[in-house]
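TA notes. Do not distribute before section.
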Amino acid sequence: MKIRENHFTKVQSFVTTNNLEQSQSTIDPKIENYIPKRTDSQGMASIRNYSPNEVVSNSNINSNLPRLNSLSTPNWYLIPTKGMTILPNDELITQLKALAGQHTSYEELDPNNMQINKLLIRYTSSVSPDRKALYKEARHAIEKFESEKKEKLTPFGELTLVYFLMKMEGLIKDTDKVKLLSNGGTVSPIANSFGGYDYDVKAGGQTLLRSSNGKWQYDATPSEDQKTKEFYQMYWSFVDEANEN
């Protein structure tokens, strides 16, 4: 009986040791790299024992998240600006009537209707400010602002965890200020939920361009609002005309 017990113990020890060696040999090198090498007084891994660079290197960072420099270029087909080609009235009316003939009900227009939006933008651009020139100057201010922020970023373009935690604790004050442009306009950095920044570009005290999650949009001026109203009055009159025929 003792012989069997000893034999079983040896076999069990061999199997356990063999399985352990196999499991260790199959550990993914990437996983092995994430095993904490430093511990606190209780034997637990502590973020306080790491430098900012080590926190980054031992973190599983999603490099697809928006970064400070991930701003898109404005889509000038959908943002009115001074100098756009304006359709002659007769051509505009022809195209509006053709679109109205396809819209035989009085339900609301799809806000993403590209044909309508492009016609609207070109129509309102006759009273638009020069947003292209404003954007060009704002872009220089934005690039300068972002270069100053690079020291607080990881190699992936995201705020370091240490900097984020210190800011949350109030140890770092947000010193971002409005950037003045030579034409009297301003650019205001606005922290977004991705750890980066969006921007508000103003001229004459009114927002003309702003980014949201890296995509540029515009705010209409009172003159542009008036032109928009005229545009839709024409369009809906053509819808009425199409429904009567």
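Switch to the second chain here.
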Amino acid sequence: MRRSFLYPALMLALSLGSAAHAEFPRVGVADIPNGVSAPFDGFWAAGIPDANGADGVSPDACKNPIQLRANGDHGLVYAAPNRPEIVYELSEFSGRTTWLPIIGESTIAVWISADAFYAYAVGLTDGRARWDDPRLYRRCPE
């Protein structure tokens, strides 16, 4: 008797959980070029957006920002405070930019404006983008 109750309860919980995920964009705005470093060059604040629409970027994040530096036309250097720099090669694919490191997980960047983009990690073992768990980057004012 208990088992017959647990299965529907589990299915309901799983369906509610998946409905709580926000749908984040998978294709960038058309007027920002993909696969090139120039649009990324600058200082950025990052946060974890939530399903309710909050971007998760702290107002103080630009006091100690992440720096993205162009490294040629199709390369990028990611310099976060107190962390080693990461060098990426950039390529365009399906309306977005793929960041390919020498080692480690790649990242897919999707522009939502000239001053903001979502970054999705791509799993090393399965090659799948984590579309439901992006990081939001907002350009810091100069």
